[in-house]
Amino acid sequence: MSQSVEATLDTHGHPKEYTSTGIPNKKLCMWAFLASECMFFGTLLSTHLVYRKTTIDVIDLTDLLDIPLTSFSTFILLASSLLMALGVSAMNKSNLKMTRWMLLGVIIFGLIFLGCQVYEFTHLVQHSGITLNSNIFGSTFYLLVGTYVVHITLGVVWLVGWLVYSFTGKMTPEHAIDIEVAGVYWHFIIIAWVIIFPVVYLTEYLL
Amino acid sequence: MENQPTSTNVTGTDVEQDVAKSTSKGLFRRPAPNTKGIVDWLTTIDHKKIGIMYGMVALICLIIGGIEALLIRVQLANPEATFLTAQEYNQLFTMHGTTMIFLAVMPLSAAFFNFIIPLQIGARNVAFPRLNTLSLWCFIAGAVLLNISWFFPGSAPATGWFGNASITLKVPHGDMSMSTDFWVMGLLILGLAALLTSFNFISTIINMRCPGMTMMRLPVFSWMSLVTSFLLILALPAIAVALLKLMFDRQFGTLFFDNAAGGNAIYGQYLFSVFGHPQVYILILPAMGIISEVLPTFARKPLFGYGWIVFSGAIIGFLGLAVWSHHMFANDMGVMATSAFSILALLIAIPTGVKIFNWIGTIWGGSIRYTTPMLFALGFIFMFMIGGFTGIMHSTVSVDAQHKDSYFAIAHLHYVLIGGSLFALLAGFYYWIPKLTGARMNDKFGKFCFTWIFAGFNLTFLPMHYLGMKGMPRRTHTYHADMGWDDLNKLASLGAFILGFGILFSTIQIFYTVINRRKLPQAGKDPWDARTLEWTIPSPAPVYNFSRTPIVKARDQHWEDKYGPKELKMENESSAPNGVPIPDRSWCPLFTGIGIFILGFGLIIRKMELHLPEGSTWEPNFEIIIAGIAITLMSIIFWSIEGPGGYHLHPDHVAETKQD
Predict the structure, then answer these.
(1) How close does chain B come to A120, measured CA to CA in Å?
(2) Which residue range forms the structural domain that includes residue B146?
(3) Does the distance separating the beta carbons of B199 and A39 come in below 8 Å?
(4) Ramachandran class of A17: left when φ > 0, alpha when ψ lies in -120 to 50, beta otherwise
(5) B473-492: buried (b, 16+ CB within 10 Å) or exposed (e) per residue?
(6) Chain B closest CA to A94's CA: distance in Å?
(7) What is the pTM of this model?
(8) How many CB atoms lie within 10 A of CB B86?
(9) Which CATH topology does A25-205 take?
(10) Residue B37 within any structural domain of the chain
(11) What is the pLDDT of residues B390-446, one digit of tens each?
């Protein structure tokens, strides 16, 4: 190994983190976390699918689900993914102003998605009577999409934290890894929706 | 001029006296580097101290689970006994199983991960020290939550450690039985602790190995811990979802497991098995790793077939994710599913057999020293083989139809869990406590404990194979006098008490050694003439582990240093000019753990009517839950603001004064 553990210093004179793979610890941990998240969402999704196929209480979803609205919010999420990638890129180039704008963009788009989901849930409850305990679809749908909404919310809170931090003057190029890790999480959560939306919403119209 | 070390705390020198002032300012001052006493233990980020706490709490839970088992055996010693009611009996076997698996064996494995892995890979700490502390406090929160269930309406859960939805779903109207809620929240929090530990150790083992420590030079214990961590992160989400669904069904009226309303309770069993099967490999792989460390040391031979053992461990982990429904052969899943799972389960015997043959190859022709750890390791091979054979019998569906829910299954699982995991963990204690505390454990007394444990264990569980074949069902609180099961049950109960005493003696010896570590004969750096990196540093291990990071040139580097050619001698990095960086202590993980506990507790007692001193009642509903969330969030926010912090130590001057 040519790189010594102690010798490399960063801009503050602190030793740069030495890792056996060259990948920063935070990034590796985030990938491991996302592996468990795959299993978590996978379990919730397969529960929904299994119950759709095997329950004695099958209901027709084609009138209940608002595809135009959810397509719009899906597009919003995909756009937020683009903004997140631009934000990470800006941070890597130490362009703090651009980073702040991109973070703000992701946060706003995330909030738009959350708004659409809140609207959809209230619509389902009030107009269609689908609640957690009205029927099995309600249970699986709200648990799956509700968990997803919680993940987006936590992501938004995380990004708000970094946006606020970026105004304290303490944000340095060393924090690029933190924005990048947040970006990895955000991209994963978008990909999860790219799977959930077709499987939960769109396949109802195919089968 | 440095202060001379006046006393040593468990993990080493008083080098920290050099750095007395806290490095943080502000409202919530972080504890200073020279903090001692209870604050030191509450706020530590030192993996060795965390390992000690895991170990001590887990041993106490081992005793608690053992007492629960002995009560079961008293009840079963005689036919139609009335020592326990049926409900009490159900509570005891539920708590015994849950305690032993989640509060004893898993945390004991975590204790060894924490203590040993950074030492074996040449690192100074784990990748995320404060997250490590949080894992510990989540474990303690879960342990407390599970056990305070005894004091609440409904008492302890009586639904089995697997919590089948058909019985856990019942929320009797008007009866405020919260036992299942305690079980669900306890397990969710314990699962979180294990998940956080796994993330930490995956990052640590993959990313923090010292220079030259390639994956194929990694000690087998660290390798098996890596495989275990991957199994944990892939299996825990399944049980988390199952528990969440159960909690939602009970608390918010969802219909997941409600057969009449379109749900299906069997799906709960499937999800539990998706977790439950990898769980047993999670319980045994670290144990196999310990054995792979102990055998070469006490046979004075390198591990036979290192690559085979590592690869087999990985295959066991991978296949372990594919066989879950072999716990459900009696559920009539259909011919295809049943056959597929049967074949896959049979396949797991192959890598297991490879490991056993390699262990035998390790000791074959070696210069064997029969110390206590070696006795436990040899006992492991023998006992785990017996458990493995009965396990393979279970894979055959037709035979499993006889075994299912009989004492044969109990015999199998205890042979692999006690004869396997516990023997290996005890071997690990006797092997590594000299490194942990600096003190030798009394080998004669250790052998005395081993004899009690080995004899008691076999006396208890060997007859259970026969009892199972004669038809005795498990999880039933008594049996008729004319079944012909009396004598063997009495024998098993006698054996259980012998085993219980053996484990008690061993536990007392461990606590005694830790508490009296300074007065007992000192072990020195390398009491066993061992092979791996942890034996190159002083005992007890100093806070910074390695004064200079090792540069590894071979597998079993320490052995090569002592007996190998000059080219393979270990080098060290030069001392860092600023000294060794040590992260600061922190209050945040403790408070996050407290917040999570309050959150869980609030979810359980949400609908409970609490009687206040003035005579009125209060139904907490969401207040306590919100308080818990608030404490957790605030602690996490302070956690991110405070950062790792840290100070520097200069160990070189101390290294020369430390005796060998």
Answers:
(1) 19
(2) 15-584+644-657
(3) no
(4) beta
(5) ebeebbbeeeeebeebbbbb
(6) 21
(7) 0.93
(8) 12
(9) Four Helix Bundle (Hemerythrin (Met), subunit A) (1.20.120)
(10) yes
(11) 999 999 998 998 899 999 999 999 999 999 999 999 999 999 999 999 999 999 999
